[in-house]
Amino acid sequence: MYLPDFDYYAPASLPEACALLAQSGPRAKVLAGGTDVLPMMKKEKIAPEILVSIKKLHQLTGIRETPGNKVVIGARTTHNELVNSPVLQKKYLSVCVAAHRIGNNQIRNVGTIGGNIVNAVPSADLPPILIALGALIKLTGTGGERDLPLEEAFAGPGRSAISPDEILTAVIIPGSSLTGSTYFKFAHRRSGALAVVGVAAAVTMEGEVCREARIALGAAAPTPMRAKKAEELLRGRVVTEELLEEAGRCAAAESKTRTSIRGSADYRRDMVRVFTKRALRKAIKDGHS
């Protein structure tokens, strides 16, 4: 398989890149790591006439903690940079774990957090844990900047809510009182496989009482989604095995699974039940450690 013909641009500034996207409209596609875009072009799933590389936009890299305990991650940050970040290892180890479960080492060296989000693949590993942590994305376009809750960034499989002239520049994890978080992924191979189901959980524990819970599901609906009824079930209650089982059943009922080559809708739904329970148990345990 060969790449189709396209024009290639590597603008030296963010305003230049946004202007080029605004001028080109749907004919253009942003290129970061290329681990999703280039294979899709080879398979003729997409056919952009223009690729706008952001490799020269060095301000879109790096991971830093800011006043207010926010963690800001540049959109060009690679998956292995997430895995090895001292900031994330200290504050949000669950993000490091999710990043490590993406593809293989070669993919993780090139693929970026921004690409994992904007390509809007329902089975992507980073959106669930970032949604569970309440992350925002910073978008920059010809009209200026805006912040958008990550859970509102997806319009459907392969479709995001990002405007054609906008570039995702950063992911922001706000400071919070969360005591524990985790991400569990079920796949058919140990390495490199897409998720059959992914479940992320983040909790705030006060003794044995769950004061706050956020549960995000991947590959369980056309877009990453919150299991809000299951979250509400947990709030203000003493955590028991029976309650975790009930929350798992509730999340499974909320899911919108479909049948694909990787599993039937019923199978996926049951995996949501199982992995929601496991993710909550691990997040709660981490909150007590």
UniProtKB/TrEMBL annotation:
Molecular functions (GO terms): FAD binding; oxidoreductase activity
Annotated transmembrane regions: none
Domain FAD-binding PCMH-type: 1-178
Keywords, in A-Z order: FAD, Flavoprotein, Oxidoreductase
Coiled coil: none
SMART domains: CO_deh_flav_C (SM01092)
One Pfam family in the UniProt entry: CO_deh_flav_C
SUPFAM superfamilies (alphabetical): CO dehydrogenase flavoprotein C-terminal domain-like (SSF55447), FAD-binding/transporter-associated domain-like (SSF56176)
Keyword Transcription regulation annotated: no
Protein name per Swiss-Prot or TrEMBL: Carbon monoxide dehydrogenase
Organism: Desulfotomaculum copahuensis
